[in-house]
Automatic annotation (TrEMBL):
<keyword id="KW-0812">Transmembrane</keyword>
<dbReference type="Pfam" id="PF12823">
    <property type="entry name" value="DUF3817"/>
</dbReference>
<feature type="transmembrane region" description="Helical">
    <location>
        <begin position="52"/>
        <end position="73"/>
    </location>
</feature>
<dbReference type="InterPro" id="IPR023845">
    <property type="entry name" value="DUF3817_TM"/>
</dbReference>
<keyword id="KW-0472">Membrane</keyword>
<protein>
    <recommendedName>
        <fullName>DUF3817 domain-containing protein</fullName>
    </recommendedName>
</protein>
<feature type="transmembrane region" description="Helical">
    <location>
        <begin position="85"/>
        <end position="104"/>
    </location>
</feature>
<dbReference type="GO" id="GO:0005886">
    <property type="term" value="C:plasma membrane"/>
</dbReference>
<keyword id="KW-1003">Cell membrane</keyword>
<feature type="transmembrane region" description="Helical">
    <location>
        <begin position="20"/>
        <end position="40"/>
    </location>
</feature>
<keyword id="KW-1133">Transmembrane helix</keyword>
<feature type="domain" description="DUF3817">
    <location>
        <begin position="21"/>
        <end position="110"/>
    </location>
</feature>
């Protein structure tokens, strides 16, 4: 029989961390998707020399807004989970590297759920 040596996290703190984690996960996925669309748009425009309609600039603007929300969600979760600054920084930077936000989100979600005994 294995006994857990980690102290039980207070239910109120679990709830706060869980809410912050959900917001972080959603913003990470939205940011990652907009970044993929932005990269595709840039490849089409600058490498393949495809004529891009003017309204397609919305992709870049949307990624910028989504990234700001992602950074705020990262800070929110980092404060509640008491991350070290290097964890905050690497997590925040994941929103500007294609596909990395998905990988970092999965890793942080697993780490936080384990540390705070979240379901």
């Amino acid at each position: 029989m294995t006994t857990s040596t980690a102290p039980k996290t207070h239910p109120e703190r679990q709830k706060r961390v869980d809410t912050a984690l959900k917001i972080f996960s959603v913003t990470a996925w939205i940011t990652g998707m907009f970044l993929i669309f932005l990269v595709i748009r840039m490849i089409m425009q600058y490498i393949l020399k495809v004529e891009i309609p003017e309204w397609a600039t919305i992709v870049a603007i949307a990624h910028g807004w989504a990234y700001m929300a992602y950074v705020l969600a990262t800070l929110n979760l980092g404060l509640k989970a008491r991350w070290k600054p290097v964890v905050w920084l690497t997590t925040a930077l994941a929103g500007v590297v294609p596909f990395l936000s998905f990988i970092i989100e999965a890793n942080r979600r697993r780490e936080v759920k384990e540390r705070f005994q979240l379901a």
